[in-house]
Write a structure and sequence with these properties.
The chain is of the alpha+beta class. It has one domain: Gcn5-related N-acetyltransferase (GNAT) (Aminopeptidase, 3-Layer(aba) Sandwich), CATH 3.40.630.30. The chain contains 5 helices and 7 strands, in the order βαααβββαβαββ. β4 (78-86), α4 (95-109) and β5 form a beta-alpha-beta unit. α1 (12-25) packs across α3 (42-49). It is globular.
Length: 160
């Protein structure tokens, strides 16, 4: 059974463990690179979790982290879903859906009316997950990726 755990800055070792696992398993899915984080010390990890207006969640099977997600408060009624990852050992079990819903619930409780995200084009499994959870393309230009040509695909979901 998988349970969701809201992370605080005191949980930085757990966040570090799951973030490094995500960047190692699926480097194609993130703009961040493992080289930027794998040697980060306690203060770097704690600072990431102390960002005002953020909501950090880890999915655990027993004591083993099997997924992660971040929510970030935006402006004008929008929050962002970031850094979603599910371990290969837990894929296909609804963990991604639960992590998305955890951030959507937090965003609604924070007053957001829209939950947005950016996804790397070509990440078909992530795009399918997001579409299944009500996200649609916005037509906005996402951030430029390191190749200097490709842009992230921006998706959003209205929050009831």
């Amino acid at each position: 059974m998988v349970r969701l755990h809201i992370i605080t800055s005191d949980d930085w070792p757990l966040w570090q463990e799951v973030r490094v696992a995500a960047l190692t398993d699926a480097p194609y899915a993130f703009k961040a690179r493992l080289a930027n984080w794998d040697r980060g010390g306690r203060e770097q990890w704690r600072a990431r979790l102390d960002l005002p207006g953020s909501h950090n969640v880890v999915a655990l099977r027993g004591d083993l982290p099997v997924g992660m997600v971040r929510g970030i408060r935006g402006d004008r009624g929008t929050s962002e879903l970031r850094s979603l990852w599910v371990s290969p050992a837990a894929r296909g079990e609804g963990v991604g859906d639960r992590l998305i819903e955890a951030v959507a619930y937090w965003a609604r409780q924070s007053g957001a009316t829209t939950l947005g995200l950016a996804v790397i084009p070509g990440n078909a499994s992530a795009i399918a997950l997001y579409r299944r959870n009500g996200f649609v393309a916005t037509g906005e230009l996402g951030e430029l990726l390191p190749d200097g040509v490709t842009r992230e695909q921006v998706l959003a979901r209205r929050l009831p």
